[in-house]
Amino acid sequence: MTLSLDLSFWQAAFFILDYAIKIFAIGFVPEGRRPSSSTAWLLAILLLPFIGLPLFLLMGSPQINRRRHRIQQEADDAIDDAHSDVPDHPFEHLEPEVESIIKLNRHLTGFPAVVGHNLGIHADYKKCIQAMADAIDQAERYVYVEIYITSWDETTDPFFQALARARQRGVEVKFLFDQIGSFKYKGYRTLGKRLSAIDVDWRLMLPLQIHKFRFRRPDLRNHRKMVIIDGKRGFIGSLNLIKREYKTTDRAWIDYMVELTGPIVVSLQAVFAVDWYTESGEYIEMLTELEDSGQEPDSNYLQLIPSGPGYTTEPNLRMFTSLIHHAKSRLIICSPYFVPDESLLDAVTTAAYRGVRVELYVSQRADQFVVDHSQSSYYQALLEAGIYIYQFPKPFVLHSKFVLADPDAGRADPEETEEGIRLKSHPLAAFGSSNLDMRSFGLNYESTMLVTQGNLITEFNELAANYRAVSHELTLEEWNKRGFFRRYIDNVMRLTSALQ
Rounded to whole angstroms, how far apart are CA atoms 354 and 331? Predict the structure, then answer.
């Protein structure tokens, strides 16, 4: 009798707790969240409440701790103060649509569009690392490095040897790398000791150190990839500091870094200064020198868009969506992980429906199982909309990230206006560390560069042409031949990708 009462009590308690969790979830999960994300979390909690709720509490919010929010807000205020006398852009006349994109980015991040001189897109993996090493060898005052994945191996050794030589000359070197992004690769346990041995001042980004009472949402990442030298030269792009094969034997990554000089490097240094202060508590002076005539052949007009959990408005998503809506004739999207939210998917398919030639460049096989399948779950809708999907062949992983809107537009097709000559379509580009997926929009700290004018647009267009020349075009007829099991796995992974 007693045993029966005990069982009844626990059954009733379990029943009440089960429904309490579900009622709580229905009322609180959707708040401030995308419909797709809300649906995915609610499904997980309603089906498996005692697993789904702890996961939601651990990883269900993109917000970071109060200290990081405070630092980001203070940094935004400092950037606004430093640039208070700087206009949104240096143009006398600019198409209203392009100007509105620049103003959007300025409002969300504080950074104006300024001049940057293009010293080249380094698209050969080893030569890119050597180019950064050569630039470090010219450093006179300091070198700041912020790279998501860092490994000191046979491929990256020239870079670290250049840092060692810089320290021997008395050049200050500060180095940031992401803990979770780097720890699974060979040599991580000794990396800090090796950096200290060459006298490099280094810090982990977003460290998860419970023994030091430093805990955070464990799936946040600092995904930025930047090198700043003397405040005058900078590198930004998609390349991590690790051998091209990472830790595999059957895949090799395709990447690039863009080398820049001019006032745009000040923007790069400001982002690094905020991240360095966040992890070390040490202040780096943010430079404010933005004067440049912008009349050289290599002059580009650039605007840096930092993004991440510290920003509540998802600046990179809004910028990419605006860029896609801007395209009139041709749109190029190159991203290793294309997992769009509703707004981005609608923008891309709408562009195709209104006659824009949309080209999506992805890997034939992504390097992550979940992403590979969640990404391909969108192919049906994309192909039906008339989007061209180019798959970079195995064993390579196309890790480059950039978007081009009307890259072929030029002075050959102008029109007369009251303000003077205006292009019927203004070419734009965006490049950097951000993928076009929900993780990059909400969970990763990213750095993206908008190009409003300059030869970088032409060079990225040429890079896309090189990718297209070796890629396989996926057709709707071919895609429709995939089996039931592939469709099922794709859709399940698509659901998990929305758990943001």
Answer: 12
One digit per residue, pLDDT tens: the chain, 500 residues? 554 555 576 667 666 776 677 777 676 666 666 666 777 767 777 777 767 677 766 666 655 566 667 777 776 676 666 666 777 788 878 889 999 999 999 999 999 999 999 999 999 999 999 999 999 999 999 999 999 999 999 999 999 999 999 999 999 999 999 999 999 999 999 999 999 999 999 999 998 866 666 666 777 899 999 999 999 999 999 999 999 999 888 899 999 999 999 999 999 999 999 999 999 989 887 766 666 666 788 899 999 999 988 888 899 999 999 999 999 999 999 999 999 989 999 999 999 999 999 999 999 988 888 889 999 999 999 999 999 999 999 999 999 999 999 999 864 455 555 555 455 679 999 999 999 998 899 889 999 999 999 999 999 999 999 999 999 999 999 999 999 999 999 988 887 776 55
Task: Look up residue 106 and give its two tokens.
Answer: 């300025």
CATH superfamily name and code, 315-497: Endonuclease Chain A (3.30.870.10)
Report which of 482, 445, 480 is spatially closest to residue 216, judged by C-alpha positions. 445
| DSSP, residue by residue, 345-411 | HHHHHHHHHTT-EEEEEEESS-SSHHHHHHHHTTHHHHHHTT-EEEEEPTTEEE---EEEESTT--T
Question: What are the two backbone dihedrals, phi and then psi, of residue 267, each rounded to the nearest 5 degrees?
Answer: -65, -45
355: left (phi over 0), alpha (psi -120 to 50) or beta: left
Instruction: Write out the two tokens for 178.
Output: 């992401």
Distance CA 148, CA 275 (A): 12
* β-strand partners of 116: 300
CA triple 47-40-377, angle to 5 deg = 120
Q: Answer whether CATH 3.30.70.1130 is correct for domain 66-90+114-300.
A: no
